[in-house]
Amino acid sequence: MSQSEKQHSSTGNDAARTETVVDVGTQRVARIYAEAVLGAAEKQKQSGEILEELEALTQQVFRADPHFQAFLASSAMGRERKAHVIRKAFENRASELLVNFLLVLNEHERLDLLQPITTAYRDLRDERGGRVRVQVSTAVPLPDDQRERLRQQLAESLHKDPVLELQIDPELLGGMVVRVNDWLYDYSVRAQLEDIRKQILARSSYEIQSRRDRFSSPDGN
Amino acid sequence: MRFKADEIVSVLQTEIDQYRSKLDAREVGRVLEVGDGIARVYGLSGVMSGEMVEFTRTKVRGLAFNLEENSVGVIILGDYLDISEGDEVQATGELLRVPVGDALIGRVVDPLGNPRDGKGPIVTTQTRLVESTAPGVAGRQPVNQPLQTGVKAIDAMTPIGRGQRELIIGDRKTGKTAIAVDAIINQRGENVICVYVAIGQKESTVAGVIENLHKYGAMDYTIVVISSAADPAPLQYVAPYAGCAMAEFYMYEQGRDTLCIYDDLTKQAAAYRQLSLLMRRPPGREAYPGDVFYAHSRLLERSAKTAERWVIVPSSADKTKVTDDWSVIRKPDNSPVVFVGPLEKEHAEKHELSKHPGHKVAKVVGSGGSLTALPIIETLEGEVSAYIPTNVISITDGQIYLQPDLFFAGVRPAIDVGISVSRVGGKAQIPAMKQIAGGLRLDLAAFRELEAFAQLGTELDKATQSQLDRGYRMVELLKQPQFKPMNVVDQVMVIYAGTKGYLDKIPIKQVAAWEAQFLRFIAEQRPAVRTALMKEKKLMPWIEQQLTAAIDAFQPQFKAPGAAAV
Q1: How much is the mean pLDDT over chain B?
Q2: How large a percentage of chain A has pLDDT more than 90?
Q3: Quick check: B135 pLDDT over 80?
């Protein structure tokens, strides 16, 4: 198993979600670049490394220094200046492919799309590799054997290679919540307690109503 | 105490014992942005257009309105102030439905069927889709039965039939709602279920209407659906469809006659415009979205007179339960033969029944119901050529046009006879009314012209003067106070008296008194005329004779108001 499996804190994954881009035009452009860079990376058999580098760049570098993101996105700086900075900052530190890609983006003045390109790259790579990202929330950390069993079961039912993204959410109390794309499978203790509460409320209000109706006149009330 | 605590405890215990845990699988999305009654949601990729969604945390419901490439535009049917960015939204897999049934009669509800009158929960298991398609050509029959509003001017000149759509249009404060409420009050004892949908109005106004409905006993057969001016735009948009669904239940399931009042569609169009602009749908004329016509046409198209269906069943069959399937005649593919409409019924009685001795022709339960719609449109400064008024005028089967000038001149209801029409209702009028009201419309229109001419102060010849006098009295006769709907038979009698010139000698100011005294006279001393007319519904020569005799007998008894009484 070569996929990276990350054990986030409970909010780790939400950050990426809220940065979702809704602008259709931006997403289309991002997908085109993502496809291109993925094609190049696959030729050199580096698609995994490029993803790691892109994610490191957009999540760690940008977060640590938001000015750098602003600098890249800004059109106030000349292209040559930015190219110079990119070379200086990344050459010999990042793979040659990434540096070239950044330079191409710079040439086309699309460096502001780095974030959506990263997302599109990840989704595209998952799609081509038959992988599917599955967010699993549990109240306590899952032991390795259970995690393995979960993965096998998911692989069986989804007919895809699941990439587990584990989260800890003590509020679930127990059980687990599995999310695959837009589908949420909730088997947490919290959800079941809520369900019980609803059923009991409905049942008792029905009982109260029927007792009341028994005493009131048939046409009145 | 009516229930014991331990009883409830045991109920809870069995409930817990019987609880079977189940996997809760749902399709979810996340709120990207929210405001002004709409939310943009990421995810929910499998949601249907018009599907109900639920905001998991606050339990508020919404409606998937716009399906876009990367997001779903949701209109929020409830309090949107508690919803925040990042909230989970789940699909319910159902289209929007409202509760229907007898539990709603006499109640005041919001467009989702939640009680608004503080009279406890509405317990019903039946629901109906808020948006449903109108019946097709085969499922309908022409309007053929009158819906009496009890307003003389309407029943005589712009009659409304069951299943018709008649628009009430006019400026603010011209008595539009008053006509609608009178129409509801007049349905007492007529076996018509009424639905009054108040859209975007002041709560105080609606409270007044409800109070009057209570006062005149109309809430026994009426449902009030409120989405006030304070409610979010999505609820105002949905309200007429919800009210229509509640009425449709009675039309389709029980074959009953219903009356639906949409007060008013101008405000619904404004609410829809707000939603559409917030959803960034392209604005068209007057900034309304392109499909605002469809919003109204699909609503009003749902009013119908559904065709009666007849089947041949054994004589012993229970008439209250007949369905299509009971038909003893079968097509080659074993589907039941149903006779639709009066012509086919006649055919069945004349030709088919003889082949099946011991059988009878029975109506399928739930067929032949009707939904009459009285949409209301408010105009600005009498401008009927604005976008929404022209749209709705073209959709409906006629309009009752109310004029502020007439209203302030004391002609109430302030119906402008010249431009008010009813395109189909004439067929549904009772023959007696048709006989006497035929010329009334033209007479009044001619009178209006003459009246303008007479104001020039020129000398008038005798014929013109008498035409004018007649006109003044007819106008006076058609005046009617609010909450005083009149039986159609009484209407026929007084209009008959007016058109035949019996009022020409009565001073204009005393016409109302004459009318009241005359009706009392008939009720007390000549009830036979009234019952005969009620039975025949036609002005037979012998009835006409009796009626003129009654009027002649009454004339000397008329006491001018103010004159010294005994």
Answers
A1: 91
A2: 19
A3: yes
A88, with CB counted inside 10 A (0-12, 13-18, 19+), is exposed
CATH number given to B430-557 = 1.20.150.20
So where are chain B's domains?
28-95, 102-132+161-304+369-414, 309-363, 430-557
**Fold of the CATH domain A6-127:** Peroxidase; domain 1 (1.10.520)
Instruction: Judge contact between B475 and B511, C-beta under 8 A.
Output: no
| Residue B26 to residue A24, Cβ atoms within 8 A | no
d(CA B216, CA B213): 5
Where are the alpha helices (H) located in B417-526, listed in sequence order? 431-437, 440-454, 462-478, 488-499, 511-525
Q: Which entry of B423, B441, B473, B530 is annotated as an active-site residue?
A: B423
Chain A residue whose CA is closest to B15: A200
DSSP class of B264: T
Write out the residue limits of the CATH 1.10.520.20 domain(s) in chain A. Answer: 6-127
Q: What is the mean pLDDT of chain A?
A: 82
Query: Minimum mean pLDDT among A155-159, B235-239, B253-257, B315-319: which range?
Result: B315-319
* Percent with pLDDT over 90 in chain B: 69
Which of A182, A189, A190, A196 should one mutate to test binding to chain B, selecting the residue with the greatest count of B CBs within 10 A?
A182
Provide, as residue numbers in chain B, all residues whose Cβ is less than 8 Å from the Cβ of A27.
70
Cβ neighbors of B377 (< 8 A, separation 6 or more) are: B167, B168, B169, B264, B265, B266, B388, B389, B392
Check: CB of residue B203 under 8 Å from CB of residue B175. no
Residue A6: predicted pLDDT: 43
CB atoms B3 and A205 under 8 Å: no
pLDDT confidence bin for B84, thresholds 50/70/90 = very high
Q: Structure tokens of B105? A: 């009669």
Contact B129, B360 (CB under 8 A): no
Rounded Cα distance between B564 and B561, Å, is 8
Looking at the predicted structure, is the pLDDT value of residue A1 above 90? no
Return the DSSP state at A58.
I
On whether the CB atoms of residues A129 and A162 are closer than 8 A, the answer is no
Q: Which 112-151 residues of chain B touch chain A by CB within 8 A?
A: 121, 123
Tell me: the pLDDT tens digits for B183-202? Answer: 999 999 999 999 999 999 99
Is pLDDT above 60 for B170? yes
Of B18 and A42, the one with more pLDDT: A42
The CATH fold of domain B28-95: Elongation Factor Tu (Ef-tu); domain 3 (2.40.30)
Model pLDDT for residues B331-371, shown as the tens digit of each residue: 888 888 888 888 888 888 888 888 888 888 888 888 899 99
Class for domain B102-132+161-304+369-414, per CATH? alpha beta
- Contact yes or no for B23 and A187 at CB 8 A: yes
Choose, out of B23, B87, B117, the residue to mutate when testing the contact with A (most A CBs < 10 Å): B23
Q: Return the residue matching tokens 């979205």.
A: B289
Q: Would you say B533 and B543 are in contact if contact means Cβ atoms under 8 Å apart?
A: yes
Interchain pair A207, B8: CB under 8 A? yes
Tokens of B28: 């979810």
pLDDT at B15 over 80: no
> By the 8 A CB rule, do B48 and B59 touch?
no
